[in-house]
């Protein structure tokens, strides 16, 4: 028996006993609400195949079957412990668990929700009234605008508060079935991201000095994932040169409603410059007017439109032999008021990849960094091949440390030694 | 305690005094006063002057010395030569020690590192700066190294780091993997076995120790690679292969055991 199954067994035995006695009738009425139960019903009706041949993602517990499902492309739903529990439970809707305390608590929560819905309604009416007011009566356009904005913020807050205590919402979110067009799921996703993944990202971009080197400041508010082919790259990971010959795919998850137009830039901040004994910058990719929203998150850098989005197409990053690792930082920058930039003008202006600072672009086009990601490259076995494909000049040389002459020996304050 | 070289002049003084004493003893009976005084007072056994010198030559016992002297410098350990080795504005090269300390009185700032014993050393060639950086830490004192003589620390918070490459380009070199070799050669004197350096090693079969005309050991070792035969790498998580191999080994062992028994029984 799998560990989790063993752990959840006593509880399940208890539950099963009470269900069979208490809520058989109720179960029939409320079957329509249950998603997993329906799956199970179908399975029990027609057990044409044994479970190990066609494992159910909601019920699978053995690691081998889980792996097989993952290979097929379906992720198992929920935790393994929960799936083990579902294997042996009867299909009872969560709302009707036969615990008195639970039901009493649910009543309180439902009452709270009703209250919140009422508040939402009144707030919406107030906003409408405020907006309908003539500017003179409202006390100036600025005051009116600020009042409306504050009220809208409060409304968003209320929308989240109305649903935040709903166990089925929580469950749907944990099963990755949350609808990101709804504020509550966006709120939960944002909170989850900020708990761990964002902290890691911020740590990586500050520890590897991306933030003062490439941009003076960045406060990530969108979650960014980076894929080369199928492989997800964690922030700061080393990527082989061969892998990064094709443009990566991005998954930009916004946690606000609405649509935004963003500029995406990939900058290398460690191009060695031997003549000046310093490091240069190189723009490996630049695209403007990329629409993102909470529901459409996928951005394939190679699929962006050549004639209206891509300013500088993808240039595969390579690191010369012996050079320190290159940091390739990906920045998602919000355009001002989500207005599209003039593509032709940008294309005409930004022709050079070398030494265009992202800071300059930021001030030139009024951009604001809302998301960041980072990967690194260094010399590896595949680099030479990629360099030859690219026609990279400098493939036949390697970098060596310059010898610093030691200081001449000087006897310090000899009189004290006597 | 008096040291020997201090004692020496005293000994010389004593010798001169004894000569004076002997002259006194000759003239002694002539003086009445002297005899009277000698009869009334007990005669001094030793001359008076050396007695005054005696404390210098006497031994001081442990009980006396253990009370200690007024200024006990003997207890102080040797100085550890801590402190600043390079002052602000001095030129340093990588690895140059700037400050020696017990504990972290100073912290490494830009282009500096901290050693195992909290020694601050330079990681870049430049000029030393001692500074405070309240934005980084409110209380710490930092030591940094700057590239320009006039540059000041700390830098503004969001300014890009000033860095130097410190590298030169050299033509890329193919790495030669050295493989030394043992060869034998037959002379009029006999067989001579030589150790051949990797650079001079010849491919293919040649006479080797043990009168064998064969390839070098490392070449034999790589023959599978040349033939294009590759074995699967060992994966410790692959329990299926491990189990199969273990099973095969057990079977073989059992087989050998049974054969052994048969042989024995046959002999008997």
UniProtKB/TrEMBL annotation, chain A:
Family annotation (CDD domains): PEBP_euk
KW Manganese (keyword) present: no
Subcellular localization(s) per the UniProt record: Mitochondrion
InterPro entries linked: PEBP, PEBP-like_sf, PEBP_euk
Main subcellular localisation: mitochondrion
Coiled-coil positions: 106-133
Entry keyword set: Coiled coil, Mitochondrion
Pfam families in the cross-refs: PBP
A single Gene Ontology CC term: mitochondrion
Similarity field: Belongs to the phosphatidylethanolamine-binding protein family. Mitochondrion-specific ribosomal protein mL38 subfamily.
PANTHER family per the UniProt record, alphabetical: PHOSPHATIDYLETHANOLAMINE-BINDING PROTEIN, PHOSPHATIDYLETHANOLAMINE-BINDING PROTEIN 4
Function (record text): Component of the mitochondrial ribosome (mitoribosome), a dedicated translation machinery responsible for the synthesis of mitochondrial genome-encoded proteins, including at least some of the essential transmembrane subunits of the mitochondrial respiratory chain. The mitoribosomes are attached to the mitochondrial inner membrane and translation products are cotranslationally integrated into the membrane.
Full protein name: Large ribosomal subunit protein mL38
Organism the protein comes from: Penicillium salamii
UniProtKB/TrEMBL annotation, chain B:
Subcellular location: Mitochondrion
Keyword terms, alphabetized: Mitochondrion, Ribonucleoprotein, Ribosomal protein
Gene3D superfamilies named in the record: 2.40.50.100
Basic residues composition-biased segments: 259-268
Stretches assigned to coiled coil: none
Pfam families: Ribosomal_L27
GO CC field: mitochondrial large ribosomal subunit
InterPro entries assigned: Ribosomal_bL27, Ribosomal_bL27_CS
Origin superkingdom: Eukaryota
Region (Disordered): 64-85, 245-268
GO terms of molecular function: structural constituent of ribosome
Any single biological process term in GO: translation
Record-stated family: Belongs to the bacterial ribosomal protein bL27 family.
Name listed for the protein in its UniProt record: Large ribosomal subunit protein bL27m
Taxonomic classification: Eukaryota, Fungi, Dikarya, Ascomycota, Pezizomycotina
